[in-house]
Write a structure and sequence with these properties.
Length: 67
């Protein structure tokens, strides 16, 4: 089983592209949120690649009324 075979809802981290589709947030908006909050508990910087911690970001989304 390679990484592409793992369903998004089971992944620990998501790329910006995956997170955009999963959370239905525009890629540019999600990238901007991550770049403006690099020390947030839901962001992982892997070199110059941004990864989103799915479960932690879900908690943030659940607490918001608007993004």
């Amino acid at each position: 089983m390679n990484n592409a075979d793992v369903p998004i809802w089971e992944k620990y981290t998501l790329t910006i592209e995956e997170a955009s589709k999963y959370f239905r947030i525009e890629e540019n908006k999600l990238r901007k949120l991550a770049e403006e909050n690099p020390t947030a508990g839901w962001v992982i910087l892997n070199g110059n690649r941004i990864q989103i911690k799915r479960k932690q970001f879900e908690k943030i989304i659940d607490s918001l009324d608007a993004i």
